[in-house]
Design a protein that fits this description.
Strand order of the largest sheet: 2-1-3-4-5
Number of helices: 9
Distance between the termini: 44 Å
CATH topology of the largest domain: Rossmann fold
CATH class of the largest domain: Alpha Beta
Number of domains: 2
Bound molecules: cobalamin
Helix content: 55-70%
CATH superfamily of the largest domain: Cobalamin-binding domain
CATH architecture of the largest domain: 3-Layer(aba) Sandwich
Length: about 210
């Protein structure tokens, strides 16, 4: 029964059906399914499939947009259930954003939700943000951790700009930087001098905890 619902969630993203995706997400919660399983076993395989179909030329930009919209609609239903009933003691403050030139927000937002669910106070500055805005948000919020997301091979270079801007502002020794996004690897993180890389939202939480504790 639950497998069938995960398959339907997946398909609603592939088909780009936001309303259906949201309804299925609500149905899953009503049936007592774990919201994280709905993401990992339904929505993520769906959006990955959309990406594959785009890469092979079977899908076009509008398909990418409505696929993303469907995933976002389902996440909006699932996210409150992810953060509900968790301990509210603040572990650390973190600034999270997608780098300049990059409009991909879904993964960054999911990382933010999971960090929030695990006691981090997240300042999400949004998408397409220049390095200077990461620095300004660190100053405003007193954060000790920065997460920079990039989904494009053309924008991942801007993760390095964030690190450079923190150095120029004299903040680099006070702030840890973690990077992520589909094209990002451990090797890239090392190359640009980041403190860590995580491949998904669950490992981002583990990494964030490690970085702020040591
Ligand atoms: C949906 C989508 C879009 C949507 C985004 C909607 C939105 N509101 O976010 C829209 C339509 C805007 C879009 C536009 C484009 N896209 Co697009 N998009 C995708 C797609 C299908 C899914 C991305 C996604 O949301 N994944 C789901 C989330 C949950 O996963 P995630 O983002 O990877 O995040 C996880 C991890 O990476 C990690 N993570 C993410 N961020 C961070 C940050 C930190 C700090 C940490 C620790 C971890 C972490 O944790 C997350 C949760 O598990 C991908 C394909 C893919 N499978 O990645 C293509 C993809 C990224 N896009 C691509 C392209 C080419 C484009 C466009 C250039 C298309 C065009 N011709 O205009 C534009 C660029 C626009 C721009 N300037 O940004 C290419 C990139 C190719 C490349 N190598 O650079 C991809 C790979 C598709 C493909 N196969 O060709 N896209």
């Amino acid at each position: 029964m639950s497998d069938e619902l995960y398959d339907k969630l997946c398909q609603s993203v592939v088909d780009g059906e936001p309303e259906e995706a949201a309804e299925l997400a609500q149905m899953a919660l009503d049936q007592g399914l774990d919201p994280l399983d709905c993401i990992n076993r339904g929505l993520t395989p769906g959006i990955d499939r959309v990406g594959e179909l785009f890469a092979t030329g079977d899908y076009y930009l509008p398909d990418l947009i409505i696929g993303g919209d469907a995933m976002k609609a389902a996440l909006a239903v699932l996210e409150p259930a992810l953060t509900q009933g968790r301990e509210r003691q603040i572990v650390a403050r973190v600034v999270l954003g997608t780098v300049q030139g990059d409009l991909h927000e879904i993964g960054k937002t999911l990382v933010g939700t999971m960090l929030t669910a695990n006691g981090f106070q997240v300042t999400d500055i949004g998408v397409d943000k220049p390095a200077s805005e990461f620095v300004a948000a660190v100053k405003d919020s007193g954060s000790t951790l920065v997460g920079a997301s990039a989904l494009l091979t053309t924008t991942m270079l801007h993760q390095q700009d964030v690190i450079e801007a923190l150095k120029e502002a004299g903040l680099r020794d006070k702030v840890k930087v973690m990077v992520g996004g589909a094209p990002i690897t451990e090797t890239w993180a090392d190359k640009i001098g980041a403190d860590g890389y995580a491949e998904d939202a669950i490992s981002a939480v583990a990494l964030a905890k490690k970085l702020v504790s040591g």
